[in-house]
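Appendix B. Extra example for self-study. Work through it before the problem class; the solution is given directly after the inputs so you can check yourself.
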Amino acid sequence: MTGSRTSALSIERLRHDGEAFMREISREYYEAHAGLKPNAELRQIYERHAAILGRDALEMVLEELRAAAPGSEGQRSARLLAEWLADSQSARELASLDERQIEWEASAVVRLADGREVPFERAAIEMANATDRRERLRIEGARARLVERELAPLRRERFEREREITELLGLAGDYNATFELLSGVPLGELRASCEAFLRDTEGMWRDVLPGFLRRRLGIKPDEATRADALALFRAREFDTAFPAADMERSISRQAREMGIDPLAAGRIRLDTGEREGKRARAFCAPVRVPDEVYLVLRPHGGQTDWNTFLHELGHALHFAYMRPDLAMEFRWLGDNSVTESYAMLFDHLMQNRGWLKRYTGLSSDDVGEFVRATAFEELHFLRRYTAKLIYETALYGGETAWESLPDVYVDRLTTATGFRYDRSDAFVDVDPRYYASRYLRAWQLQALLAETLTERYDADWWRNPRAGPWVCGTLFGEGQRELADELAHRVAGKPLSFAPLIRAVERALA
Ligand SMILES: [Zn+2]
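Solution. C-alpha cells for the complete assembly:
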C-alpha cells in the first residue's frame, strides 16, 4: 500500500487488530449472556478499534480484492475481509434502527378486545400454549394489528436503508449482485433449487399435513393459520425421554465413542453453573480460536434442550479443532453455512433411530413415532425456509415495489406451508443479509456429510471411533476457509442439493 492515508493500514495489521477486536466482542457477549456481567458494553470496543473498522480499511481491502488474481488465495482472503468490513459498516449505520426495534420489542404490549394485556415477547408462547383455538386466534389478531401499526414501518425503513447502504458501495449492480460477490453464495442458483424443492415435496407435504392437524389440533387444512402452526409444533409428549440430568453425560459419551474428546483437551470450557442473568438456552462463544471456546448451558431437559445442546456442541467442536495456523479470516469469518452444517450434523442425530435408542430414554416403541414427528417438523421448516429465501430475494432485489411485498410474502409462505400467513409480518419475518441462505446451504451440506459418513464409517458412524478423527481433521480443521459448495466437492465429490435431504425425510416418513 502506498499513499499517506492508508500507510498505517495493511492486510497484516487488519488481521492482527481484527482478531483482537473479534476476541473482545466475543468475550463481552459471553460474559453478558452467561450472567457474569449485567450487559454487553460494545460501544467502547468499537471505538477502540475504529481504525480498522472504518471506510479506509474497507477501501484498502476492496482494492486488494479487485487486484487479486481470480481463484487465488489472495482473492479468497480479500473477499472474506471485504464482506466482514462491509457488513460491519452497514451494521453501524443501522445500529440506531436496530436498537429502536429491540427497545420496542421489550416494551410493547398486545391489547386484546376484552381488555387483557399480553407482553409482545410472550405472545408466541401464549399462542402455542393456548388449547382453546379461539383464544389463540384472538391473540394473533391483536398481535398482527399492533405489528402492522408500529413494528412493520420501522423494519421496512431498516431494509430500505440497508439496501441503499449496500448499493452505495458501488461494487455491483444491486444488493443481490453485491451479496453474491462478497459472500460467494450463488443466490440465483439457490433460489431456483428452492423452487424445485417446493415442487418436489408438494405431494409429500399434502399427504402428511392433514393427519397431523387433525390428530394434534382437531382442525382441517383449509382453516390452519400460522398461529396454529405455533401450537402444532409445540409437542411435548416425549420430553420425559430427554431428562436434564442425563443430557451432558449421554452426549459427551457419544462424542467419545466416535473418537472425539468433547472438551477438546480443555480448549472447550463447559459453563454449567446456575447464575442470575444467565441465558436459558445453550450457546457457544469462541473467545480465542481454537484455544478458548465456551459452551454455556443451563440444562432444563426436554427435546428442544437436547437439540440446542447438540447444535451448540457442533459449533464449539468446530472452533476448538480449527488449525491454529490458519489466517484470522479463515478461523473467524467466512461462509457460515459451514459452521451451521456442523452444528446441524450434531442436532440431526435427534432424527437418527439408532442414536435415539442408544443415548436417550425413548423406548423402542416410541422411536418410530418420534422420528416421524421430527421428519414432519423438518419438512415444514424446510418448506418455510425455502419460501422465505424466495421472498427475501424479492425484498432485497428491488424489482417489486415495497407496497406490494406483503402480498408476495403472504402468497409465498402460505402456499409453501399450508398455514395462512399475515401481511403484517412481511418486514418482520426476515433474516437480514440472507442468513436463511446460510441455513439452507448448511441443511444441504449436513445431509451430504451424513451420507458421506455413512458410506465411510457405516450407519452408526456416530459411535465409530475412526469417524471422529476424520471429522476433526478433514472438516473442522479447515475452519471456514472454503465455501460450503467447495467443501461438498472436496469431501463428497458432489454439489450441494436438496436431494439427500428429501431422501432422509422420505425415509423417516415412510
Ligand atoms: Zn447455529
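Self-check: Residues 311, 315, 340, 343 surround zinc ion (CB under 6 Å). If your reasoning did not lead you there, revisit section 3.
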